[in-house]
């Protein structure tokens, strides 16, 4: 998917990253985070974190701003504005702006609520009340806002089911654009009402033209963003995209769509730096997490995935484009019945790199391609011609990867002839066949491998 927004200017992100990580340490104690089935033994064991440095800077701006998700309490009732203490946030309830939650369109009320909150000089909270279902057409919630904002979704936000409502922009439903210090949380649901789009997908019905469907929620050019405790269901296409964002925490998310729903990626990361996705359950019809060009410092921790297409870097380099992805750390994931486990896929003819990638502590259950690098990715009916240039793949580590493969080939490195995969390291890998528990196979081409500990299956020499 190509970004359709201009890239934001770069920031000095690295110092921000280190302090960002340290200031989120408290979230590990989040008692709401127990939705994952931590049923594999090592999940609770402390794991060395390659991105956390000892440089724990204090006292910067967003350390002061990012409060604990647990201690930040908000009075969510109506009519509390008059007697609110001076320092409490301004509460903006969508019902006060005419939202009815009666099956008719509530878009105008949400737009007014956003504009009220966004222009507030003191921090503001938009409340979407519980036990109600609000109907929205495509909306862009734009910043910059005057203060920090919370979007508290207790109830349900549901997409308009009329495709004609998306005439102006078929790629997006809800967009948060150019907002800083935004928190979206509340335990509610964002429902893309995707069925009407899926039946029109050319992947589902070959007689239909191939057209895009909207991404349910897009954050673009956002900075210091938290999305926590939200359910995303039945997106029109992708569920949640972070595009050109900096400093993002996405945690305790549940993303659900049928396994056969087309292109319904769970969380898509593009052009985004310093993002931590954690404690999330993703069951959809496409990649659980997809990470594409321009992304750097991406962590995904404690992920339950499947059905779906697994955790994917790429595809990269489509249409001879340059792509760069680096510093991706996937730690503690369980993939069940997915078509891929951990995958890197690039098109021939691209350029750039995918490097410094670690997949660690991953359990595969009946996964079709548990470990795969595909530098000859081709998502077309006709085959793709051989090309010399490629996105260079280097420094990829697979550490403690166990479980079962649905197919015979559990490990596949299909690398470029002209630009082989370099410094690919396998450490303690054990994958057997789901069917009979027998030894699985490895298929390896043009790859420079290092091996530590027990590794099975292994590439044959030569
Ligand atoms: C929501 O509905 C549940 C079950 O009907 C009820 O117990 C609860 O009080 C309701 N909450 C609100 C805020 O209306
Ligand atoms: C596919 O789309 C065509 C054209 O709209 C329609 O006639 C047909 O019933 C659809 N097939 C399925 C399986 O939905
Ligand atoms: C390889 O990648 C890891 C992160 O996975 C990083 O810590 C390390 O510095 C990289 N090594 C080189 C030689 O770049
Ligand atoms: C493994 O996956 C295949 C294909 O998705 C499925 O047919 C089979 O029933 C699965 N096996 C188990 C034990 O779940």
List keywords for this structure.
27 strands; mainly beta; 7% helix; 4 helices; 462 residues; 16-stranded parallel β-sheet
List the helices and strands and how they pair.
Blueprint: H1 13-23, H2 61-65, E1 90-93, H3 107-118, E2 124-128, E3 133-136, E4 139-142, E5 149-153, E6 156-159, E7 172-177, E8 180-185, E9 189-191, H4 195-198, E10 215-220, E11 223-233, E12 240-243, E13 246-256, E14 267-270, E15 273-283, E16 289-292, E17 295-305, E18 311-316, E19 322-336, E20 340-347, E21 351-367, E22 369-377, E23 392-405, E24 409-414, E25 421-433, E26 441-445, E27 447-456
Parallel strand pairs: 1-2, 2-5, 3-6, 4-7, 5-8, 6-9, 7-10, 8-11, 9-11, 10-12, 11-13, 12-14, 13-15, 14-16, 15-17, 16-18, 17-19, 18-20, 19-21, 20-22, 21-23, 22-24, 23-25, 24-26, 25-27
The protein binds 2-acetamido-2-deoxy-beta-D-glucopyranose (NAG) (4 copies).
The number of helices is 4
Proportion in helices:
under 10%
Provide the low-confidence segments as ranges.
1-65, 67-73, 75-81
What's the CATH superfamily of the domain at 287-462, by name? Single-stranded right-handed beta-helix, Pectin lyase-like
| Gyration radius, in Å | 22 Å
Q: How many beta-strand runs?
A: 27
Class by SSE composition: mainly beta
Characterize the main sheet: 16 strands, parallel
Shape: elongated
What is the overall pLDDT average?
86
Distance between the termini: 37 Å
At CATH level 2, the architecture of the domain at 287-462 is 3 Solenoid
């Amino acid at each position: 998917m190509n970004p359709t927004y201009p890239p934001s200017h770069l920031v000095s992100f690295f110092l921000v990253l280190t302090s960002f990580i340290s200031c989120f340490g408290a979230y590990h104690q989040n008692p709401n985070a127990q939705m994952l089935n931590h049923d594999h033994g090592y999940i609770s064991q402390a794991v060395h974190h390659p991105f956390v440095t000892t440089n724990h800077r204090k006292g910067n701006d967003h350390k002061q701003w990012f409060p604990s998700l647990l201690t930040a309490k908000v009075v969510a009732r109506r009519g509390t504005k008059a007697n609110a203490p001076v320092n409490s946030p301004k509460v903006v309830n969508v019902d006060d702006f005419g939202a009815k939650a009666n099956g008719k369109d509530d878009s105008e009320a949400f737009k007014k609520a956003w504009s009220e909150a966004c222009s507030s000089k003191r921090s503001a909270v938009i409340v979407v009340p519980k036990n109600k279902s609000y109907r929205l057409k495509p909306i862009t919630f734009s910043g910059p806002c005057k203060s920090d904002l919370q979007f508290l979704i207790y109830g349900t936000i549901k997409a308009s089911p009329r495709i004609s409502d998306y005439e102006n922009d078929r790629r997006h439903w809800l967009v948060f654009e150019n907002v800083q210090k935004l928190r979206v949380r509340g335990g509610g649901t964002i429902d893309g009402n995707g069925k009407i789009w899926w039946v029109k997908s050319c992947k589902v019905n070959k007689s239909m033209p191939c057209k895009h469907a909207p991404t349910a929620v897009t954050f673009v050019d956002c900075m210091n963003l938290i999305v926590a405790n939200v359910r995303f269901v039945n997106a029109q296409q992708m569920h949640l995209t972070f595009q050109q964002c900096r400093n993002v925490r996405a945690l305790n998310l549940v993303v659900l769509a049928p396994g056969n729903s087309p292109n319904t990626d769970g969380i898509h990361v593009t052009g985004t730096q310093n993002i931590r996705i954690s404690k999330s359950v993703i069951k959809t019809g496409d990649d659980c997490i997809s990470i594409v060009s321009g992304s750097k410092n991406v962590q995904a921790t404690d992920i339950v995935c499947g059905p779906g297409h697994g955790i994917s870097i790429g595809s990269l380099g489509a249409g001879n484009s340059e792509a760069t992805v680096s510093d991706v750390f996937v730690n503690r994931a369980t993939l069940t019945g997915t078509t891929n486990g951990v995958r890197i896929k690039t098109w021939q003819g691209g350029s750039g790199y995918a490097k410094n990638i670690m997949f660690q502590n991953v359990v595969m259950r009946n996964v079709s391609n548990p470990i795969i690098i595909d530098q000859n990715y081709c998502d077309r009916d006709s085959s793709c011609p051989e090309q010399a240039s490629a996105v260079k793949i280097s420094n990829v580590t697979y550490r403690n990867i166990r479980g079962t493969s649905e197919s015979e080939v559990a490990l596949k490195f299909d690398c470029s002839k002209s630009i082989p995969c370099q410094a690919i390291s396998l450490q303690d890998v054990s994958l057997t066949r789901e069917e009979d528990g027998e030894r699985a196979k490895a298929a390896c081409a043009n790859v420079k491998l290092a091996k530590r500990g027990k590794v099975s299956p292994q590439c044959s020499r030569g």
